[in-house]
Design goal:
- It is a single chain.
- By secondary structure, the protein is mainly beta.
- It has five domains: 50 residues, no CATH class; 111 residues, Immunoglobulins (Immunoglobulin-like, Sandwich), CATH 2.60.40.10; 129 residues, Mu homology domain, subdomain B (Immunoglobulin-like); 149 residues, Mu homology domain, subdomain B (Immunoglobulin-like, Sandwich), CATH 2.60.40; 75 residues, no CATH class.
- 13% of the residues lie in helices and 43% in strands.
- The chain is built from eight helices and 41 strands.
- The strands form ten sheets. Strands 2, 4, 6, 8, 9 and 10 form a six-stranded mixed sheet that branches.
- The longest helix has 26 residues.
Length: 686
């Protein structure tokens, strides 16, 4: 210790001499000297740090370490100026992972700051993208900042963020048996099905499916059709299932006991490259069965059943070996939830509810008791499909009815595509529970008073994608379309003047108009006849039903014109300052008559058409039903009094099933002024 003090004394001898003059101890002198030196160093450091110019930029990317394929993730980039120099014209560049779909499409996004970035200032930016890749694949995002400091262009260090694809929520399956039946003396038909199910909640576009199979397998058709060597799926809806079916055959004398390799790859096309999402491989072995099966449904080998339909199954079995077979048991197992097993009818078989199977034996089927080479037998049963079964999960989309047929050691699955179940409901309200519209007017309706109603259409589609979806209904005369609110598609109102179902004035030509005054004592006048026709409808309490139309303007016509003018006082009398009808058919009276002709006759009925286009599966099951609401106005005439009047006709829906190719059709009952009420007279016009 003393030696260290001596060294300090020696180095700072000149400084100590100052303290000797003021009689300060050596230790205090040493401490003061050290503190002064430290203070001097600190001052120098502060000058260098605060006064001298220094450029330092911090770029940081914040984002998830893991992501699910198809998920939209958010990258947050934080820029901070940690130096003491103003950064002029700063420009942030963000580079998305190459297998991502950014909100703004481009993989390289540049953000120009609105102002300079001052010392200590911080800015935050967000970048969103849907990411893709295989499981455990790493995706890399990058960011850097360009700027001018002291009139010199500079670029910050590039910062990276790696995100790992932890899961690809897509199921990809090649649906084939473990054993492939090969018939040695003939071509052997083989059906290759590849199914993929998206468990991602967002739509995925531009998918490609590549399937490789043994070169011995000759494919003759596929559903859907493929492009070149792959299948293109323009859009895969969230939580949806798709299937590709290939029908082909193995040639005669195909080797038995040979392993066949099958592979499927699902890609998404992103920014000019195909990104692999999922891959599935399987092996099946060829074998020579003892039997050959053929199955017909409703007398057809390729039949597309519909929900609620009764199916008649005929299963044919044939001995293709060279020796007879005896004491056989044939079974079929019904798979899936579309069957209503309670409806099974099988007079020659036994139904086992627990296993959902039907069994036949030689007791009732002679060919099962003893089947000679080349001999064929048949069993049959009937079953109904459920009318309104809702799929439990997305694996039941693209619906099929399936059954396995088992005889000895040979088993074969039969599958038939089922048409979708579409449901249309048509509802009518005066007091609108959905609050689409505020309806006004008397209810029940009254003669010559307008009442508004709300009509609601709802569409559900259970199993398959459908296209060309159209719903339509007819509005009768006296019912006018007002306005619409729909969730999808376009609604049109088509008016055909030559389709009036029951015109008010059938004897009046459609192009006729009242053009001259009419008054008492006119005889055999065609315009008077037309006038009387209108008066009989408008004021039947004066121009009664029993009074004939004569063309003579007599006392009854005169009084009827007065009543007509008073009925439409606002249009005829009030503008003239008259209190009572005159009985003279003047200009204002003719104007009103002509308006009634235009409103009551030529317009006829109108057709409301909702053009929806394409509708995905699971609507009304996994997603909300599609809804369209529109308001109508009904103005009853005197002839309608005491009647329940139709507000809208039966609604019909038509569509094309993309899974089966079938044309679907359904209808929903018309709605009248009773609005479904069971009370007597509740909907009668007053």
């Amino acid at each position: 210790m003393d030696e260290n003090i001596e060294n300090i004394k020696e180095k700072f001898q000149g400084v100590f001499s100052i303290f000797k003059g003021v009689e300060v101890s050596e230790k205090i002198a040493i401490l003061t000297t050290v503190l002064a030196f430290a203070f001097f160093i600190a001052v120098i450091f502060l000058i260098v740090s605060l006064v001298l110019p220094k450029t330092q930029v911090n770029v940081q990317i914040l984002g998830p370490e893991e992501a699910i394929a198809g998920e939209e993730i958010t990258y947050t980039v934080v820029i901070k100026n940690r130096g003491n120099v103003v950064l002029e014209n700063p420009e942030l560049t963000f580079q998305y992972p190459s297998s991502s779909l950014p909100e703004k499409e481009s993989l390289l996004e540049t953000v120009r700051f609105e102002s300079s970035l001052y010392a200590g200032q911080e800015k935050t930016f967000e970048f969103k993208a849907q990411v893709f890749g295989q499981e455990n694949e790493n995706l890399e995002a990058k960011a850097w900042l360009n700027y001018y400091a002291k009139n010199k262009f500079e670029t910050s260090r590039t910062i990276n963020l790696t995100t790992n694809i932890s899961e690809v929520p897509i199921e990809l399956i090649i649906d084939i048996p473990k054993k492939i039946a090969i018939f040695p003396d003939t071509e052997s038909e083989f059906i290759l099905r590849t199914r993929f199910i998206s468990l991602i909640d967002k739509n995925i576009e531009n998918l490609k499916l590549l399937i490789t199979y043994p070169e011995e397998l000759n494919i003759k058709e596929s559903i859907p059709l493929k492009e070149e060597d792959y299948w293109r799926i323009e859009k895969m809806e969230g939580f949806a299932a798709r299937e590709v079916e290939m029908v082909g055959f193995f040639p005669e004398k195909q080797k038995i006991g040979e392993d066949m390799n099958f592979n499927a790859q699902l890609f998404v096309h992103v920014h000019g490259r195909d990104v692999l999402l999922k891959e599935y491989s399987t092996i099946s072995t060829t074998f020579n069965p003892n039997f050959k099966f053929t199955q017909l449904i409703n007398s057809q080998e390729n039949y597309f059943p519909a929900p609620g339909e009764t199916l008649h199954y005929e299963i044919y079995f044939k001995n293709i070996q060279n020796e007879p077979l005896s004491n056989l048991v044939l079974s079929t197992v019904l798979e899936g939830n579309l069957y209503s097993v309670e409806t099974i009818e099988t007079p020659t078989g036994s139904f086992h509810r627990g296993g959902r199977s039907i069994t036949w034996t030689g007791e009732k089927i002679p060919q099962l008791r003893y089947l000679t080479p080349g001999e064929e037998g048949k069993v049959e049963f009937c079953v109904q499909l459920k009318e309104d079964y809702k799929p439990q999960d997305i694996t039941e989309l693209n619906a099929s009815v399936r059954n396995r047929v088992i005889l000895g050691d040979f088993e074969q699955e039969f599958r038939s595509r089922a048409s979708s179940r579409i449901k249309l409901s048509q509802e009518g309200y005066f007091r609108d529970p959905y609050r689409f519209f505020e309806n006004q007017g008397p209810n029940p309706p009254e003669v010559n008073e307008t009442t508004h109603y709300t009509i609601v259409w709802k569409l559900e589609n259970y199993y398959n994608s459908i296209k060309d979806v159209q719903i339509k209904a007819t509005l009768p005369q006296n019912v006018v379309f007002r306005s619409v609110k729909s969730t999808k598609g376009e609604m049109q109102v088509i008016t055909d003047p030559f389709k009036a179902e029951s015109p008010y004035y059938p004897i009046i030509p459609r192009d006729f108009r009242f053009e001259r005054p009419l008054f008492r004592e006119l005889r055999n006048d065609i315009e008077v006849r037309y006038l009387q026709t209108i008066l009989k409808k408008e004021v039947p309490h004066v121009y009664r039903e029993s009074v004939p139309i004569t063309g003579y303007f007599g006392p009854i016509t005169f009084e009827s014109v007065k009543a007509f003018q008073e009925k439409y006082r606002r249009d005829i009398l009030n503008p003239q300052g008259i209190q009572m009808g005159t009985g003279y058919v003047d200009e204002l009276t003719r104007t009103k008559l002509n308006r009634l002709l235009m409103e009551g006759l030529p317009l006829g009925s109108s057709e409301v058409v909702w053009q929806i286009g394409n509708v995905g599966p699971g609507i009304g099951v996994f997603e909300e039903e599609l809804v369209a609401a529109f308001q109508i106005a009904f103005t009853p005439q005197m002839a309608d009094k005491g009647k329940v009047m139709t507000l809208i006709s039966e609604a019909t829906i038509s569509a094309k099933d993309e899974w089966t190719g079938a044309t679907l059709f359904s209808a929903e009952s018309s709605i009248d002024t009773a609005l479904g009420s069971t009370r007597t007279g509740a909907g009668e016009v007053r």
